[in-house]
Design goal:
The chain is of the alpha+beta class. It has 32 helices and 17 strands. A 6-stranded antiparallel beta sheet has the order 3-2-1-6-5-4, sandwiched between helices. Strands 12, 13, 14, 15, 16 and 17 form a 6-stranded mixed beta sheet that branches. The longest helix has 45 residues, at 289-333.
Length: 763
């Protein structure tokens, strides 16, 4: 209602939101205070007695809190000192020469306690066993010179809580004595800690309470002894059991609020402290009630004035604090670059303008997302091909990406440019990208005429087409083969490079895309046997062809073993058998050269692993020589008569030690997926571990363990770059107990984690 009225004022309607909020808060907070103040004044004028009683309670509470706080703080000082190790040690050791250092530290600690407190008090430490007393006013004195000793001995000692002896309890006693045993809680303590407080300090608290001329205030302890009063002469005296005040103190409910003492009537209020069982009693002359009524009325309005000032301050601070979120929001929406007008203007209007700006920006982002969305779909498709997504991730990502293929069965057609290295050398980066894009679009269009299809580029020079069908039929395979032949035909007609492609069999569901991709990748590897520039399907791979590939790999491995062992004759025999296998099973000349290039690469790797620089040691490039040859007989003769003897010559030049290292390296390379140790290899080649370790270090320049790690990391890098084997499986296969150890070692070797290496290589 107040806000509605204020909103009609012209100057408020024209001001900023921040100032309007200030006026609204001020109205809501101050007007109720004024109404409440008026009601309180009226109640004070009509119900004087109730107001006086409440005033009594306020005063009593105020004084009680202050006195209790004073006693509590002094007790905290006493407890802190009485339980301090320095003080306890000083009590136990006494003022001897051996304990001078401890005594000085104890005195310094006690003095610090006085200095840190705003209460003027003195402290005395009574060393009862040594009849000495340390005081903050006279230093170390004799027990006889310590006047309070008599009072302390006479007073009942409380060993659980602090004992307080009020002034005038004994002759010539003018201070409050607060007593704690040292150590605490002992029935017969060796020391007594005494805190002395001038009674004027308590009297000052009463004076600050503004009790008036004739009002009295008494503080009575649990024994009926007056421990505090405006009149210091009353302190220390006891209430007589026959007096009316004694009965009021003992049971205020029996007498009521009015009590006659002498020839005057008083209104009484009492409040008992839970800290020390002291009773605070306020006595106000009845004739002062009317005067008190006016006083209370004035005090009420004065208090209201103070509240209004406080509310002004609170409202000012609150309005600023409430406006802070708007400022922060404005700053964030503006990108943190607000000009002076935005900082001092109407925040809500600024937010509205920024929201409009955000709407425009959102439209722009939608257009950007439209451009990037196909890339996200391709990333998801690559994840499916590589098997990097769980079933839950496949489900959530497929809904998000809205893949245009939702079939239940999937084929994968994997096409790869033949001789990609020559392709890379022939074209620059820009031309390669354009040719690869055209190649990919051509494959996508060929399949899209008949099936649901998505394409992706798993590796450089490759295009993978994922083909979805709901219910494949018997004619589906033939239709896919026909499209594959059309693709090869278009490539031969419109592109200057050759292509081989493989078409997998059908696999079920999105998880089957990975299986289909692996199958197509395996089929494509048969190019070495079947030749390039052709299409390969599962039915093209006959059992004897698989056996032939196994025989070729086996012969190549035996040749490397013979060369490493220095057995030229065995290497020649295995070369002849390899040539026979190639002649009987391979018809394509490029495939033949590829097989022998692979053998040449194995020989080169063997030499490099033993520290030989193949570039410097061969006069001509052996790969160039191999590709210049025109017949398999010429290739075999070159390996037999020239290359094998030359390689063995260079490997055996250091003698028997090099042979041992050759054998060790060969064993390591053949058993990277098994447990390898220096002892195991030494036993295999029949030498001692110490000799093998020394020879291996001398020849290769690295110790055995480092070499094993290097070989395993190279193998892991190859698998990460060229396969979709999960990282955990790679770690298991090269004998790492967990993925964390493997990842840490791989990062030290490759300067990046395995996952990042795979992504960077493929990107």
């Amino acid at each position: 209602m107040f806000a509605r009225l204020l909103s009609r004022l012209y100057f408020i309607r024209k001001t900023s939101f921040k100032r309007r909020m200030f006026f609204y808060l001020l109205a809501v907070s101050v007007i109720p205070v004024l109404l409440l103040g008026g009601a309180a004044s009226w109640i004070a004028a009509t119900t004087v007695q109730q107001e006086v009683n409440r005033n009594h309670q306020i005063i009593l509470t105020q004084i009680q809190v202050q006195v209790d706080e004073l006693v509590k703080r002094l007790d905290q000082v006493a407890v802190h000192l009485a339980s301090d190790e320095l003080v306890i040690k000083a009590v136990q050791l006494g003022p001897s020469l051996d304990s001078v250092g401890n005594a000085m530290e104890m005195a310094e600690k006690i003095q610090k306690q006085r200095n840190y407190s705003d209460i003027p008090f003195h402290i005395a430490l009574w060393l009862r066993d040594y009849q000495k007393v340390f005081t903050t006013w006279d230093g170390l004195i004799s027990e006889d010179d310590f006047s309070s000793a008599r009072y302390i001995n006479l007073a009942p000692m409380n060993f659980i809580s602090m004992t307080i002896i009020p002034p005038n309890s004994y002759p010539n006693q003018s201070e409050y004595l607060l007593i704690r045993p040292v150590p605490m809680f002992e029935e017969h303590p060796a020391g007594i800690l005494v805190v002395r407080l001038d009674q004027n300090h308590i009297t000052d608290i009463f004076k600050q309470a503004n009790l008036g001329k004739h009002r009295k205030l008494l503080v009575v302890n649990g024994n009926g002894t007056i421990v505090a009063s405006q009149q210091q002469s009353e302190v220390g005296s006891k209430l007589t059991s026959t007096s009316e005040l004694y009965r009021f103190w003992n049971n205020p409910g029996d007498i009521g609020e009015t009590l006659e003492l002498g020839d005057k009537k008083y209104n009484l209020s009492a409040q008992r402290s839970t800290l020390n069982d002291w009773t605070y009693i306020a006595l106000t002359p009845s004739k002062e009630l009317k005067e008190k009524s006016n006083y209370i009325l004035n005090m009420t309005w004065g208090f209201i004035g103070i509240l209004i000032v406080l509310w002004l301050i609170v409202v000012f601070i609150s309005s600023n604090r409430l406006y802070i979120p708007i400022q922060r929001l404005t700053s964030k929406l503006s990108g943190g670059a607000m000009d002076e007008k935005a900082q001092t203007g109407d925040g809500l209007k600024e937010i509205d303008s920024y929201i409009q700006h955000m709407v425009v920006t959102n439209d722009q982002l939608q257009s950007v997302i439209g451009v990037l969305f196909p890339r996200f779909q391709e990333s998801l498709l690559l994840g499916l091909l590589r098997g990097e997504l769980s079933e839950q991730e496949i489900f959530s990502h497929s809904k998000l990406s809205e893949l245009p293929i939702s079939s239940s069965m999937f084929f994968v057609c994997l096409a790869e440019i033949d001789g990609y290295s020559d392709f890379s050398n022939t074209y620059n980066v820009k031309d390669r990208s354009l040719l690869h894009f055209a190649f990919r679009k051509m494959i996508e269009e060929q399949f899209a005429n008949h099936f649901e299809v998505l394409t992706a580029a798993p590796m450089q020079g490759q295009v993978a087409a994922v083909i979805g069908l709901e219910h494949p039929t018997a004619s589906t395979d033939e239709q896919l083969r026909r499209i594959g032949r059309d693709i090869l035909k278009f490539v031969a007609e419109f592109f200057s490079f050759g292509v081989s492609l493989a078409i997998s069999s059908a696999h079920k569901g999105y998880p089957g895309i990975h299986k289909a991709g692996k199958e197509a990748e395996g089929l494509l590897s048969y190019r070495l046997m079947l030749g390039t520039g052709r299409m390969i399907a599962p039915e093209d791979i006959a059992p004897d062809l698989k056996q032939s590939r196994y025989e070729i790999v086996k012969r190549q491995k035996l040749i490397i073993e013979s060369i490493s062992g220095g057995d030229l004759q065995a290497a020649r025999t295995q070369l002849a058998e390899l040539a026979d296998t190639v002649v009987n099973n391979v018809r394509d000349s490029n495939t033949v050269r590829g097989l022998f290039s692979h053998l040449l690469g194995e020989l080169e790797f063997l030499m490099q692993s033993l520290g030989h620089d193949t570039v410097k040691e061969f006069e001509r490039d052996p790969y160039r020589e191999l590709h210049e040859m025109t017949s398999i007989e010429e290739i075999v003769k070159w390996f037999d008569c020239q290359l094998f003897p030359e390689v063995i010559n260079r490997l055996q030049s250091p003698g028997r030690q090099t042979t041992l290292v050759h054998q060790a390296i060969l064993y390591v390379r053949d058993h990277l997926e098994s447990d390898i140790s220096l002892q195991l290899v030494a036993d295999e080649i029949e030498v001692s571990t110490s000799h093998l370790s020394k020879v291996f270090k001398d020849i290769t320049g690295q110790n055995f363990v480092e070499y094993v790690i290097e070989c395993r990391m190279k193998l892991a890098m190859k698998w990460l770059a060229q396969t979709d084997v999960p990282i955990k499986e790679i770690a298991d296969r090269i004998r790492y107990t967990n993925v964390q150890n493997f990842a840490r070692t791989f990062k030290q070797y490759a300067q990046m984690p395995p996952g990042q290496y795979r992504n960077r290589f493929r990107s």
